[in-house]
Structure formats: structure tokens, C-alpha cells
Design goal:
With 146 residues, this protein is mainly beta. The chain contains 1 helix and 10 strands. The chain has one helix spanning 46-50; strands spanning 9-12, 20-24, 40-45, 57-61, 77-81, 91-96, 99-108, 111-115, 124-126, 132-142. An 8-stranded antiparallel beta sheet has the order 1-4-5-10-6-7-8-9, with no helix packed on it.
């Protein structure tokens, strides 16, 4: 397994507060600019939008760049849902032999592969000889541009 000095800080979700913010009435085009709409859509509450299972949802901040190819970078905040059943190809927070990591999960008969999306890192093979738990499935990534 690629050993690193990555550290992860886990936070529980708090949906007891509401903060509804206005949303522009149309999508923002990433191609050629278009005139802005002169109206706002109904308010958006990020708790309702991003947290579907509050009791099983937590946040974790990413340390490292092994998932850069999937748009997950150092310092990003992951919204992870433990109630979602892991599936082949999901991005998940995993516990392997005493360490947490975030990787894309590839399931095979008798083993699983934890796949980084940065070619600097090697896949991690896990089987019955490893202490291995898929802690939760990543549902959203919150990025901060510096």
C-alpha cells in the first residue's frame, strides 16, 4: 500500500439549521456567454440539496492528490454517505490496514482494487488478508478555488 502522511479529519453533518439562498433562474453556460436572466428561482438550501441521509452522512477533508484525475484535490471537502451501498466503480472512503484513504473501488471475485486517478500512485489490492472496510460512498465534492 502506498504509505503517505495523509491525514483525514471527519465531521458529522448538522442539518438542524437552514440557510436558503437565492438561485439564478437558469444554468450558467460554460461555453459562450449569454445574457443573464432577470429573475431568481426559488431559494436553495444546501443541506436539503446535498445531504439526503443526515444520520449517515459525514464530511471529510482530503489530504493529498491521488484522486486528482477525478477532480478531487488536496483540501477538498467530501460529503460521504454511509447508507449508500458500495458498488463497483464508486468513489469511497475506505479503511485499509489501519489507514483511511479515498479511492475508486473496483470489485472482483475474492478481492477489491482501490484505484487512484493520479498516475503517480499505484492501485491497492485488498483481500481477506487485509483489514478492509468501505466506510462510505462519496456523494459530493466541495471545492475551494484559491
Amino acid at each position: 500500500m502506498d504509505k503517505s502522511s495523509n491525514t483525514y479529519t471527519f465531521h458529522t453533518s448538522d442539518v438542524s439549521t437552514r440557510q436558503e439562498l437565492p438561485v439564478a433562474g437558469s444554468a450558467v453556460k460554460a461555453g459562450f456567454p449569454s445574457p443573464a436572466d432577470d429573475f431568481l428561482d426559488s431559494p436553495l438550501d444546501l443541506n436539503r440539496e446535498l445531504i439526503h441521509n443526515p444520520a449517515s452522512t459525514f464530511f471529510v477533508r482530503v489530504s493529498g492528490d491521488s484522486m486528482a484525475g477525478d477532480g478531487i484535490g488536496d483540501g477538498d471537502l467530501l460529503i460521504v454517505d454511509r447508507s449508500v451501498a458500495p458498488y463497483d466503480g464508486c468513489v469511497a472512503v475506505c479503511y485499509v490496514d489501519g489507514e483511511f484513504t479515498v479511492k475508486r473501488v473496483r470489485l472482483e471475485k475474492g478481492c477489491a482494487w482501490l484505484m487512484p486517478s493520479n498516475p503517480k500512485y499505484h492501485p491497492i489490492r485488498v483481500d481477506a488478508s487485509n483489514e478492509f472496510i468501505i466506510w462510505g460512498v462519496v456523494r459530493h465534492v466541495v471545492k475551494t478555488f484559491k
